[in-house]
Amino acid sequence: MKEVLRSEISEPPLVTSYQALLQNNDFHSHVKTESIVVQEIDLPMINLCNLQSENREKRRLCAEEIVKAASDWGFFQVLNHGISLELLEEIKREQVKLFRLPFEKKVSSGVLNDSYRWGNPTAVSVNQFSWSEAFHVPLDKISDEDCNHGEFTSLRELMKNLGMAMSNLGRALAGVLAQNLGYSCHDFPQNCDEKTCFLRLNRYPPCPFSRPETGAACGLVSHTDSDYLTVLYQDHVGGLQVMKDSRWVAVRPNRNALIVNIGDLFQAWSNDAYKSVEHRVVTNAKRERYSIAYFVCPSYDSTIGAYAQPSRYRSFTFGEYRKQVQDDVKRTGKKFGLSRFLV
């Protein structure tokens, strides 16, 4: 009984927040329509050990696989990525403990630099429904002595190590993709450091409104990422879905692989050579889901210009892009993203 009570008070008040939406007669029909998935698939799998091979042909073929996946899918999986499964499993255990804190403490105690987020309390329509909670932490704040880790002091070093490892992986993959386009600089993307990149710890609680007859509600609504690259570690529960050929496909989890996807900034910089693809997370009625995402972002005053001209997009800074996205979502409930910056 004590464990049940603890679980109940640790949950964010999602039901209360979404009460009006849940009473809407159109809710379940909308969810059912939006949840149609063609099939469960395996994302393109790339073995990164070949990227470091002494064999030039193996390196070339590996780079071609990365480029093809970034162009055709915008998503791919990587094996032998250089991040130990022991580190990932250890931080997952700490992550579970962190989210089991009472909701009031997560909201008000300043844990992890006041980075706690939950649901979407301002949602006004079903398509803004997000059944989730997260800690969204700037990388430089993780090791900051003023960043309150509370009783989770071991989490500081784990997050720092994971952030550094995911940063190195993201930069290596971005370099391969940039060089494919003839870009000579090996330090791409530029101006990405601990002040601009984020580590996000996600939890998707069981959702009682996800039912076989009505479909699954969204843990994270359909979106594209507003960064260069995202590196994702997810557990075995599943729920990630990707838009492919105008239909949703469910991504089959693979505990040995990390998922990488192209963000809006890389699509703009590559002049649409690489695709930033819509994706979402759907909930599970009985099981919670955990994931950790690393976002490769430049400084807010960095200009995102195409690597070659003519460009499909006008020049803009990351700060300008971020503000436009936030304004659009606040005003319309929808992200327009790159379409706002077409020439």
UniProtKB/TrEMBL annotation:
Keywords: Iron, Metal-binding, Oxidoreductase. Residues 195-298 form the Fe2OG dioxygenase domain. Its cofactor is L-ascorbate. Pfam families: 2OG-FeII_Oxy, DIOX_N. One of its GO terms (molecular function) is oxidoreductase activity. Belongs to the iron/ascorbate-dependent oxidoreductase family. This is Fe2OG dioxygenase domain-containing protein. It comes from Rhynchospora tenuis. The lineage of its organism: Eukaryota, Viridiplantae, Streptophyta, Embryophyta, Tracheophyta.
